[in-house]
């Protein structure tokens, strides 16, 4: 059984560092880069990948924040609309609470409401 506290391999820094080192070594092997520059190129690639991860994580955080604010605002708007509709119904004389007229005007009292 796998331990949930252990991250999958592709989510670790060691995995990505190894992939970048292998890629740089392959580029040197095929003569696309100078062998003396493998370590420097590996470091720059690793910094680029880590920078990309940070940007993606921030984008996710901003997206989650926007969604949560939208949920709050929609709920607030629905509550205000319901309250406004209830106030309008009472003002028009057709609002009721538990079947009783809320306006308490003489004509409704006279009719037994």
Please tell me about this protein's structure:
The chain is rod-shaped, with a radius of gyration of 33 Å. With 113 residues, it is mainly alpha-helical. The protein has a two-stranded antiparallel ribbon with strand order 1-2. The protein contains three helices and two strands; from the N terminus they run ααββα. Strand 1 (96-97) and strand 2 form a beta hairpin.
SSE layout:
Layout: H1 13-29, H2 38-91, E1 96-97, E2 100-101, H3 106-110
Antiparallel strand pairs: 1-2
Helix pairs in contact: 1-2
Main features:
single chain, 113 residues, mainly alpha, two-stranded antiparallel ribbon, 67% helix
Q: What order do the SSEs take from the amino end to the carboxyl end, as H and E?
A: HHEEH
Strand coverage percent: under 5%
Question: Main beta sheet, described?
Answer: 2 strands, antiparallel
Mean pLDDT: 77
Stretches with pLDDT under 50, minimum 5 residues? none
Q: How many structural domains are formed by the residues?
A: 1
Order of neighbouring strands in the sheet with most strands: 1-2
- Described by the principal axes of the CA atoms, the overall outline is rod-shaped
Helical fraction: 55-70%
Count of β-strands: 2
- Report how far the terminal alpha carbons are from each other: 70 Å
Rg, rounded, reads 33 Å
By secondary-structure content and strand pairing, the structural class works out as: mainly alpha
Give the count of helical stretches. Answer: 3
């Amino acid at each position: 059984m796998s331990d949930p506290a252990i991250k999958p391999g592709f989510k670790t820094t060691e995995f990505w560092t190894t992939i970048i080192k292998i890629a740089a070594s392959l580029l040197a092997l095929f003569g696309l880069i100078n062998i003396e520059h493998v370590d420097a190129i590996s470091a720059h690639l690793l910094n680029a990948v880590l920078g990309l991860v940070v940007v993606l994580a921030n984008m996710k955080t901003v997206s989650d924040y926007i969604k949560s604010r939208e949920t709050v605002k929609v709920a607030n708007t629905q509550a205000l609309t319901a309250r406004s509709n209830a106030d309008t119904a009472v003002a028009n004389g057709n609002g009721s609470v538990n079947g009783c007229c809320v306006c308490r005007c003489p004509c409704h009292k006279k009719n037994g409401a």
